[in-house]
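Sequence, please.
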């Protein structure tokens, strides 16, 4: 069973096997956590991402961590929230599930996630937290031992802490 922890922090500082990036479908960097990861990993990441030719919403692709302390970066575009009737829940679940599959494929033991889609993509926070934690706790893991949600602010940490008490 995967051990789950919620912490407050900056995911670019994580010393883990893989961090997950809440990317966009171009994989060419953007704002929020995506911008912070591209900035901290350095220009080699931009070149590696260019060679991946984008990624569909809910899917995941992996690059090295380059200048980051993390060995790998798993890039997944989460869904943009519209009204909840555009498959948003399923797509967010896919982002977590497919990122964990990528982590397994790279024999990762430790994986850190940001709160995917709850920034500029406006997915409701508690709803996203429940989907994230359910998907992680039900994932059939072989190599992954520990997953952390790295919340950038206290409101996000509180939502995931609460969702953890429900799961
Ligand atoms: P999305 O486009 O998927 O909504 P955002 O980057 O806008 O992605 O936001 C996702 C979450 O990542 C938000 O909670 C935001 O506060 C958070 N975030 C921003 N920078 C960092 C960081 N350096 N480490 C961890 N989380 C971050």
């Amino acid at each position: 069973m995967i051990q789950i922890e919620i912490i407050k922090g900056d995911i670019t500082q994580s010393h883990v096997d893989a961090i997950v990036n809440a990317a966009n479908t171009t994989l060419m960097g953007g704002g929020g956590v995506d911008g912070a990861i591209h900035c901290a990993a350095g220009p080699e990441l931009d070149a590696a991402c260019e060679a991946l030719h984008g990624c569909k919403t809910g899917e995941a692709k992996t690059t090295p961590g380059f200048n980051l302390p993390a060995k790998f970066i798993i890039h997944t575009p989460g869904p943009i929230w519209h009204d909840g009737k555009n498959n948003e829940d399923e797509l967010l679940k896919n982002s977590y599930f497919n990122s964990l599959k990528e982590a397994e494929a790279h024999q990762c033991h430790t994986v850190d996630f940001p709160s995917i889609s709850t920034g500029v993509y406006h997915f409701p926070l508690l709803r996203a937290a429940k989907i994230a934690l359910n998907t992680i706790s039900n994932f059939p893991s072989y190599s992954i031992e520990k997953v952390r949600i790295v919340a950038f602010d206290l409101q996000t940490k509180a939502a995931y802490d609460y969702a953890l008490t429900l799961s």
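Residues 10-12, 22, 32-34, 36, 78, 114-121, 150, 152-153, 156 surround adenosine-5'-diphosphate (CB under 6 Å).
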